[in-house]
Amino acid sequence: AQTVTQSQPEMSVQEAETVTLSCTYDTSESNYYLFWYKQPPSRQMILVIRQEAYKQQNATENRFSVNFQKAAKSFSLKISDSQLGDTAMYFCAFITSGTYKYIFGTGTRLKVLA
Amino acid sequence: DGGITQSPKYLFRKEGQNVTLSCEQNLNHDAMYWYRQDPGQGLRLIYYSQIVNDFQKGDIAEGYSVSREKKESFPLTVTSAQKNPTAFYLCASTRFANTGELFFGEGSRLTVL
Asked: Which residue of B5, B25, B50, B99 is the best one to mutate when testing the A interface, meaning the one whose CB has the most A CBs within 10 A?
């Protein structure tokens, strides 16, 4: 079975500091896509960052970057210069190429402290 | 503006009643999804539809039903057979044959009284 594991239910970080959220996944497929989604207290889920498994280069979006370790099946999210607006639930997800079923982790609740 | 609209945002239901949650998108996406979100359990897939007039059961389809008569619309009915329907429901969509970003609605909170 394909699974996503987020082992940190809750985390906190001081404003302007850096925090890393961990995610591991399990699949026997070689071609897939990985995502981090953010769900702020307003509840609307938005995409933070996306990574294609065939790309070795780690994806980066402004203050957000990933550490993609394909062999270890690890996909952590690093948030640099944390801001109060980063306070949210973060979900890791992946989908195997050619399918329509996204697999989500249970989420990490991040709180940025002033 | 393009997006996904879910309604109602909050819904209260008495036990034994069926309720229908609306999901409409104007993104011209082929694939649409319904997820249920409970605390500590992440998102669990209820149903998904790749194309009009076709849909597949997800991991927790029991007690739910859907239809996909139009590309833009994917309503979810929570039936009285659903034993624990109180939850937050999210609708999402993505472009056909594109394993890219899921776009989400704002969600519907269903409470059974």
From this structure: B99
